[in-house]
Amino acid sequence: MQEEQIFEAYGPESGTSYRLSLALASAFPGKAVVAIAETFDLETYARAGGCTATPRATPHAQIEAGWRRNQGLWHSVVSGVFDVRWKEHDLVVAHARWVEGYRPTTSWFVIGGDRAVVDDFTSATCEFCNEPREAVLAFRGGCWQRDGEIYKAIQAASFEDLVLSGDMAREIRDDFASFLAAKAEYAKYQVPWKRGVLFVGPPGNGKTHCLRATIKMLDVPCLYVQSLKSRYETDDANIARVFDRAREVTPCCLVFEDLDALITADNRSLFLNQLDGFANASGMLTLATTNHPERLDPAILDRPSRFDRKYHFALPRAAERGRYITQWRERLDPAMRIEDAQVEALVASTEGFSFAYLKELFLSSMMRWIKTREECAMATVLDSQLQTLREQMKTDASPTPQAAATAEPLFDFP
After folding, report:
1. Which residues contact 240 (CB under 8 A, 6 or more apart)?
2. Top-tier CATH class for 146-312
3. Where are the domains of the chain?
4. Over the Cα atoms of the chain, what is R_g?
5. How far is CA 118 from the centre of its chain?
6. Quick check: 184 pLDDT over 50?
7. To pair with 270 at 20 to 30 A between CA atoms, which of 121, 207, 321, 374?
8. 402-407 long-range contacts, CB within 8 A, separation 24+
């Protein structure tokens, strides 16, 4: 086939990567040219000290700038050529971004005289970029992004900030820790080394905080699925990408928060197949939460080998509300503190409150007391705010929580 026929077969857009590769091969005769995407990111590797990368002035390097509140102004070369020094080797790396079929596409090209060196450098860069390292890999918009904010929230969480009844704290820690340590035992008895756990219960009772504390305790890469919707890909394609990436970084935690909002009748089949089908899921710990278990298909909620264990988080009972309110009282400024009798009255009057509503009760009362402390006692302010929040609860669209629960609820402090 002639060169012109190759271009015709590729088409005007889908042949871009090929034409770039051909142009680079012409510009660097006798050199190996390897194209790679997805997990390769030269600038990230260079910033970490893995190599040095200097953009060439010719051809023109297209520099993209952005701004983030906590980072300030940042720059990145979206199309250009770098001179790279890695160990004792000199390489060239080209980066290009274009639109293909209405979808932004990016590709890296590694160029060197020794193909083995090119492959070793590419492998080292991909291995480094594939590890989250002080970030969570968050899936949104059809692609993975490193998210430092979610990572910080995980690092701030602790089981010390949670109160659970009986041995539930120990059960959770032992359940997950023993799974990660038991790879050899699973292999010995030919049991698939994978685990699925579901946190179930009404909103505001500690599922998310417990999830974060668990991930922090395990100290393995975390992949967080925020959305399966994207402009150019189907849910099924995105689900496949999620599980493919998770398999690359096992052992890992694959997190689906608000599972009932992510998995629908349209994408359920592939999701179930990825959880327990023929595809290898060894070392994958799938953690999910749901406020609405009634919206989940029984094939997800009840069938073994998908979510093997369920932990339930219910509204706090009087004993838990008493402990929570007492903890808050001890944290208040002495001028704000309420008496024991007022604590008991508050416990009795907050039946049906979640921990999130109890937290809001104290925070909103503190702010109002600061404005009116010359006129009202803290107990009076709390009572007034309680009535306001109770009216708000009546208009809350959340369904009535299930009465049955197997675990004492959790709470955390700001």
Report:
1. 270, 274
2. alpha beta
3. 3-130, 146-312, 318-394
4. 27
5. 32
6. yes
7. 207
8. 402/202, 402/293, 402/314, 403/314, 404/312, 404/314, 405/201, 405/312, 405/313, 405/314, 406/311, 406/312, 407/164, 407/165, 407/168, 407/311, 407/312, 407/313, 407/314
